[in-house]
Amino acid sequence: MNAGKEFIKEAYRAIFQKDYQRAIDLFKKAISRDSNNPTFYYKLSVTYARNNNLKEAVAAIKQALALRPHDPVFQQHLDMLKGRQLAKEAWMQIQKGLEADRVFPLLDESIRLDPINSQTRLLYAWLLKEQGKTKDGMNVLNELLAIDPWHREAKDLLRAWDILEDRK
């Protein structure tokens, strides 16, 4: 019954030492010992996500959900990963020059799936400001500060944009 558990303990040690690749390898070894344990896949997914390896993170959490289809923690993790993927796609589209109106739906869905992702909200606020919608961008920054009251970048942007609005 303890198949793979020794690798899990060692993987946590590797994470503590910030050796994420070793942790990934150890989680995979645990899975090779007990491929029907959904929490092993979940832990692997979280570790991939920490390394911003979203494709593998999604694949691992989908394996966990295949074994335990209605687990709310696994589903929430998958949603978060999908939200990050959408934010990444939105950023790539912005860099390619795609019109903001076509990027906003990606960011809206990203925020719906991963509501606490501060980077997505910062990108959304910046894009609104670039569109001349500074007040809307400020609203997004205020939403971010409601989630994370200590977010320095959001505070700095809000102060700077507020000064600009006062000058108009």
Describe the structure in your own words.
- The radius of gyration is 20 Å and the shape is elongated.
- It is built from nine helices and no strands.
- The mean pLDDT is 93.
- The chain has helices at 5-16, 20-33, 38-50, 54-67, 72-95, 100-113, 118-130, 134-147, 152-167.
- The chain starts with a helix and ends with a helix.
- It has 168 residues and is mostly helical.
Summarize the structure.
The protein is an all-alpha fold.
Number of helices: 9
Largest β-sheet summary? none
- Strand percentage lies at under 5%
Q: Secondary-structure element sequence?
A: HHHHHHHHH
List the helices and strands and how they pair.
Elements: H1 5-16, H2 20-33, H3 38-50, H4 54-67, H5 72-95, H6 100-113, H7 118-130, H8 134-147, H9 152-167
Provide keyphrases for this structure:
80% helix; 9 helices; 168 residues; mainly alpha
